[in-house]
Amino acid sequence: MAELGIMFSGAFLAATLLPGGSEVLLIALLSNSPEAWGALVVTASIGNTLGAMTSFYIGHLARLAKTPAELSSGKHTKGLALIERYGVWALLLSWAPVIGDVLCLLAGWLKLPLIPSILMMLIGKTIRYLIIAAAVLQWLTW
């Protein structure tokens, strides 16, 4: 199914530091194939989580280049405060615009545990896609 490949690519790219709107893509694909909602949600969740793991890995590599003082100032301050306060639980917000990418990057930089980080990202992203899918399917049945 070509839609799944498109959904995976869009979700993956949207979760990296590149701009993208996987939600809009999901809405469009659901409008054309509402019966494929489950496969689209799973595909989007996995693609978006793998994209977030790319940011996590980049953050891990950035540890070699950035000092704690450099990363704790500027635009990373709110994300760093969230992760320092809540740890991997903050990654439930990895789906959120703007801050989500920063959280994934900082989680890698802070060397948060890999498996719990992946699980929190996957849970947060899946819940977001399920809510979007439910709203679209409800709207289509009106």
Number of helices: 7
Biggest sheet features: none
Please, how many domains?
A: 1
- Average residue pLDDT: 88
Number of extended strands: 0
Report the portion of residues in β strands.
under 5%
Low-confidence parts:
none
Rg, alpha carbons? 16 Å
What overall geometry do the principal axes of the alpha carbons give? elongated
Structural class: mainly alpha
Share of helical residues: over 70%
Element pattern in H and E: HHHHHHH
How far do the termini sit from each other?
Answer: 27 Å
Describe the structure.
- Residues 22-135 form the VTT domain.
- It holds the Pfam family VTT_dom.
- The protein is an all-alpha fold and 142 residues long.
- The chain has one domain (2-140).
- The chain contains 7 helices and no strands.
- The chain has helices spanning 2-15, 22-32, 37-62, 68-71, 77-86, 99-109, 114-140.
- Helix 2 packs across helix 7 (114-140).
- It is elongated.
- It starts with a helix and ends with a helix.
- The mean pLDDT is 88.
Question: What is the strand and helix layout of this fold?
Answer:
Layout lengths: L1 H14 L6 H11 L4 H26 L5 H4 L5 H10 L12 H11 L4 H27 L2
Helix pairs in contact: 1-2, 1-3, 2-3, 2-7, 3-6, 3-7, 5-6
Pfam family, one: VTT_dom
InterPro entries: DedA_domain (IPR051311), VTT_dom (IPR032816)
Organism: Shewanella morhuae
What does this entry show, briefly?
The chain is mainly alpha-helical and 142 residues long. It has seven helices and no strands.
Main attributes of the structure:
142 residues, single chain, mainly alpha, transmembrane, VTT_dom
